[in-house]
Design brief:
The protein is mainly beta and 233 residues long. The chain has one domain. 9% of the residues lie in helices and 43% in strands. The protein has four helices and twelve strands. The strands form three sheets. Strands 1, 2, 6, 7, 8, 9 and 12 form a seven-stranded antiparallel sheet that branches. The chain has a three-stranded antiparallel sheet with strand order 5-10-11. It has a two-stranded antiparallel ribbon with strand order 3-4. A hairpin with a 5-residue loop joins strand 3 and strand 4. The longest helix has 7 residues.
């Protein structure tokens, strides 16, 4: 039991490595960057903000399988159409179902797109779809979705490792289109022991951000969204 002067001097007696240091900041960081270019390709707006909104789907799918085994618990995941699935130890055949993010049809799961929308949600954790997704097309209020891109492998620079997901959208709607929300969509496809075979659970919102200020994309202009995820131990 510490009493008297010992309590007053606790900061002096504390080991040196317990003090705040430069490396005491978060080891994982995520940023969202949005760049608007006019019809000539000139940059007319750059928006950048911290991204910190994994959804409940993200948390549930990245829980280790032994958590389900040891607790006997399950986790409900909901795809963008509102269909619920029970995720538990019996619904997956291996402890690791997510590999480095990739595109295409190589399973068990893969990155589909960065979806943009014109709405917003106050609780991103419980979000399973964007509030008002912007459709892919050239009609009123729509944007043409370009091909999504992702780093072929994590990039290492000094003590930092990171990867970038990006996608470009073109406005050929004839009018201004405003973007206020962004989400990362993953296709979850796994071998389901309970079902006795492969099962495609559909598209899931794994990461969601409401922009700190809406971004206007003029007709003829383009918008590119970059998500940068980095680890700096």
């Amino acid at each position: 039991m510490m009493v008297g002067k010992a309590v007053d001097d606790i900061d002096i007696q504390m080991p040196h490595d317990a003090y705040l240091q430069d490396k005491d900041g978060p080891t994982f960081k995520a940023y969202l960057t949005a760049i608007v270019r006019n019809e000539k390709g000139d940059i007319v707006k750059v928006h950048k903000q911290r991204s910190h909104s994994p959804t409940s789907n993200f948390i549930g799918m990245f829980l280790p399988r032994n958590w389900f085994n040891n607790t006997g618990e399950s986790w409900t995941i909901i795809n963008i159409n509102g269909t619920s699935y029970t995720h538990n130890a019996g619904s997956i055949s291996t402890p690791n179902n997510f590999y480095y993010p990739t595109t295409g049809s190589n399973y068990p799961s893969y990155f589909v797109m960065i979806q943009v929308g014109s709405g917003q949600q106050s609780n991103p954790y419980s979000a399973y779809s964007l509030a008002a997704p912007i459709a892919n097309g050239s009609g009123t209020g729509q944007l043409i979705y370009g091909q999504s891109s992702i780093s072929q492998a994590p990039i290492v620079s000094g003590s930092t490792a990171y990867f970038v997901i990006s996608q470009t959208y073109f406005n050929e709607s004839g009018n201004l289109v405003t973007v206020s929300e962004v989400g990362i969509i993953i296709d979850i496809y796994m071998y389901n022991i309970n079902a006795g075979g492969n099962q495609n659970f559909g598209y899931f919102l794994m990461w969601y951000d409401t922009l700190s200020s809406p971004i206007s994309v003029p007709n003829g202009a383009s918008l590119t969204i970059y998500y940068t995820f980095s680890v700096n131990p």
